[in-house]
Amino acid sequence: MQFKLILVFVDDEKTDKVLDAARAAGATGATIISHARGQGLKKMTGIFGLELLNPRAVLLILVEARRADAILQAVTDAGGLDERLDTGIALMLDVDKALGLTQHIEALQKEHPL
Fold this sequence. Notes:
Blueprint: E1 3-11, H1 15-24, E2 31-36, E3 56-64, H2 65-79, E4 89-95, H3 102-111
Antiparallel strand pairs: 1-3, 1-4, 2-3
Helix pairs in contact: 1-2
């Protein structure tokens, strides 16, 4: 079975909405790295010239390749990633090898048949 890794970088408050959309599109789960920081095209400065960095979450979603495009589109829509510069990004990478997924694959085939 072929897999893709979808990485989604969004504001913390959008995490649940994006995860719900991914699950509805066929993802079986995700790993969440919270309290990430990042810079966009321009630095945002606040009072006293200090740089403002909004807390972000990084969602790592390992998905079966045939479902990947639909899941990527679902998280993009849910997070509003194409609305403004500061809404976050999503990207998809090929996975050469993934181990420890036998139970996930069986559950996926039962709950979300293609």
